What we know:
By secondary structure, the protein is α+β, with helices and mostly antiparallel strands. Helices cover 21% and strands 30% of the residues. The chain has 14 helices and 39 strands.
Amino acid sequence: MSIRYDEANRIFELDTRNTSYRIGIVDEEGFVGHIYYGQKIRPQKCDQFLRTCEAPFVPSKNNRERCSFMDTFPTEYSGNGIGDYRESCIAVKTANGSRTVDLKFVDYDIVNGKPGISGLPASFAGEEEVQTLVVHMMDGGCGIDVDLIYSVFEDENVITRSVSVKNAGDRDIRLTKVYSACIDMDDEDFEMLTLHGSWARERQIERRPIAYGKQSVSSLRGESSHQDHPFMAWMTKGTDQTTGDVYGMHFVYSGNFIAQIEKSQFDSIRAVMGIHSEGFEWWLTPGETFTAPEVVLTYSHDGLGQMTRNLHDFYRCHMIRSRYLHQKRPVLINNWEATYFDFDTDKLLAIAKSAAEHGIEMLVMDDGWFGHRNDDATSLGDWFVNENKIKGGLKHLVDEVNKLGLKFGIWMEPEMISPDSELYRKHPDWAFAVPERTATLSRNQYVLDLSRKEVRDYVYECVHNVISSANIEYVKWDMNRQLTDIGRGDRQGELAHRDVLGVYELQERLVNDFPDLLLENCSGGGARFDPGMLYYSPQIWCSDDTDAIERLSIQEGTELIYPLSTMGAHVSDCPNHTVGRSTPFMTRAHVALAGTFGYELDITKISEEERAMIPEQVSMYHKYNDLVREGDYYRVASYRENGLYDCWMVVAKDKSEALVTYVQVLGRPNVHSRKIKLLGLDVATDYRLDGTEKVYGGDLLMNAGMLIETMRGDYMSRLYHFVLDNSLT
Ligand code: DGJ
């Protein structure tokens, strides 16, 4: 049992394998307070940490200073406008114009299993794996019932949270803010870690001290975004991969969000996460309920590395539904960087033919095959094949590709509409726009208003028709601009969230109707790489920057919280199209092997020498992918930190093998070989360096390290594969 209620002390005890979370009910009024989250403790009375005995903060015994109590009490979910001046979690506009919320404990339920959240992606688990606590609260004043929902994933050391709000009164109300989670705790000189970025520079790790006041990352772009990521961690100073206390908080949502930490006058912190309240409104008629998206919480006493592995295991076991999750994905070749918009059937078949001869398993036709699209200015919404380019039609092309022994995949961008399209000429009002204002173009396109059912139905019919028209086994679902001009109708505050719900509905229909389809999400590179999208697709395109060296920090930030199996990574041509850098072909492959692996180049045009390396690279993928996909990830060294080299490794769950990837970013003259201390091996096991007779103890490799041969040149890389051996013992 992972959840208990200690009735005598009025404490909820939530325990995972290594962590504990404690919630206390205080006073006859029923304040719900946060007592503890951290390393596992035994069940015991521990409500002293609510500090309700410290004058002047005793609510019922010192009503004169109630405001001081409200402003310092470590709450599980902050109300609004009643004395807690820190960040509120909820705001409600009632019929009489009031906005205050004062939530009090009513009752609780503990149930087996993990309830889903209607219309939203959410983690799942069997009845025997997980327990869920629902803390029922209410505010009779504004007429709402609020449930705080906690599910405890023992094995993965994860607790998920979400919140539902019901209009329990008899008049309409408007929610103007509903965060999904709040944690108050004493500051321990924590640092905050977030992931910032831009197009082609996604998920760069950033650490900063936590100062008094509020520090946050957020998106108001209608998607989780390149710029900020719906994740934050806070951790004790000096935390590294193996030591330090780390709290991670991750949002299962793909739209506007806020992740914020606030340090108070009394040196406590409040961490909140949820849908951003700016512009948000949600109408509730009597009896209606709004449920906020899920937040994933994890705690590690052993540094960032353990936080990473908790999240990797959690997403692999409880978020990604695709049947491809535990399968090797076909090695694909995508024609985007090979041809951009300039392709036809002959060109694609020439690429497919050579790809097949070199062991590649799937051709993906990217942007430009539909309407009359020859650049990014037209045709989004017109999902019928351009027979001037795809001569003989889509089915003919797919059949020919299949005859060559390759699977076929296709690119679509269903959420968009070009002003120059048949769809726009017919339904100009289907695009997000403010009446009497010219909507803002981005990449020459507008966003379809997916809050409207007729728009969703049209979009879905198009996607369905394309996929059913030929043997299409993979779809890359792209989204190449962020939302603006959300302003039509009388419930505009709902539109941004309804748009996200619309995307989820479309993808839900897609994966239900085509369970064997391999879906890869994408958004101008990796602008919608989030746990919400992983619920639908087992992999997401990580970044449009395919340069092996730029990818080191992009992939490091991505791997910090997402399993390697989810990370779209391809080998592209040089000089790299984004940064103009040239790197060795093998280094590009070694870096891409950390993800789903594929090619993004014109195989008919690269040098003979590089082409000849492809079969070897494909066989490396087949040899290592089971390990990379299913194993435990360890970050050994970061080029971002040391400026010279990068190193990560994946260790099999049973410790029977490990793959170390080392990238020497910059060569240096006249130096010793570099010593690297490996992580995660079994100290009592001997490992042989695959392909050699060299045998090392796991204890030696981890404590003394291994020597990396000095390589001549920049951007060089090596893979080291260690397998079990017992010749030392
Ligand atoms: C952005 C994607 O990230 C690219 O891979 C490519 O599909 C383009 N869109 C096509 O427009």
